[in-house]
Design goal:
Layout lengths: L5 H15 L10 H12 L4 H11 L3 H8 L13 E6 L2 H19 L5 E2 L5 E6 L11 E3 L2 E3 L4 H12 L16 H8 L15 H13 L12 H14 L1
Parallel strand pairs: 1-3
Antiparallel strand pairs: 1-4, 2-3, 4-5
Helix pairs in contact: 1-2, 2-3, 2-7, 3-4, 5-6
Length: 240
């Protein structure tokens, strides 16, 4: 089985010890962040990474592989420096996501989960980027690029391939590499968590309307749950 050199292994073992320590009663729960950790080193879940996770947690390599192949965030072949995820779920699709996807596949000459020859961009067709209020949305290494168009999307990937800095619409001030992102997902902070806005007007408008009209969620403000609560809330909405 493939393995790591002594220096890399020592660094992985030190980091893995911190990850496993977060789960004192159930160390196997550390598998997901450990898979992100090995991706931060190898750029994908390599055979050496699978063996390392298995040995660290007392699992078989088959058990580790079963988890790694279940979740699409874990890559079984080398990933690009930047994962560009285009949302083509219902709302993004009708708002232009399908057109963006068609444009990028033609522009880059690659399809889903494929990487450009220069190793810069891996393209993914994403079911949902959890940002429907900014549709259509692209994520680059899980940072938001909102209200995209086919032309803005091609400009974005061209900038990534040229090594130019790109700035997400919300969140971190810049996009770090796939391997750096994977280390963050393993639980190691990179200092960018509090940069930039986390929510904008499209996200907050519902909250503002609820406050203005004094709407409450089921069970809030002493209201009963069930049919009685529903009737009471319906009456309030009619009054508003």
């Amino acid at each position: 089985m493939a393995s790591y050199d002594a220096q890399t292994l020592a660094r992985l073992e030190a980091d893995a010890a911190q990850v496993v320590a977060r789960y004192p009663e159930h160390p196997r729960s550390a598998l997901l962040p450990l898979l992100h950790l090995v991706q931060s080193v190898d750029g994908y879940v390599s055979p050496a990474g699978i063996g390392f996770c298995a040995q660290t947690l007392g699992l078989s390599t088959a058990e580790v592989s079963a988890v790694a192949t279940f979740y699409t965030q874990y890559k079984r072949h080398p990933n690009g420096t930047y994962t560009v995820g285009v949302c083509t779920n219902t709302l993004c699709a009708v708002m232009g996501g399908d057109a963006i996807w068609a444009e990028l596949t033609e522009h880059l000459g690659i399809g889903n989960d494929e990487t450009t020859e220069d190793g810069a961009v891996t393209l993914e067709r994403v079911e949902c980027n959890a940002a429907c209020d900014y549709a259509p949305v692209i994520m680059v290494n899980w940072e938001f690029f909102d209200n995209q168009t086919p032309s803005s999307a091609t400009a974005l990937v061209d900038a990534l391939r040229a090594g130019e800095p790109v700035h997400p619409t919300r969140g971190a001030d810049r996009v770090v590499s796939f391997r750096e992102t994977e280390r963050v997902l393993a639980g190691f902070a990179d200092g960018h968590a509090n940069e930039g806005p986390g929510a904008g007007e499209p996200t907050l408008v519902g909250l503002r309307l609820a406050a203005e009209k004094r709407w409450t969620a089921p069970g809030e403000a002493g209201e009963p749950d069930g049919p009685a609560g529903a009737r009471k809330r319906g009456a309030k909405r009619e009054e508003a």
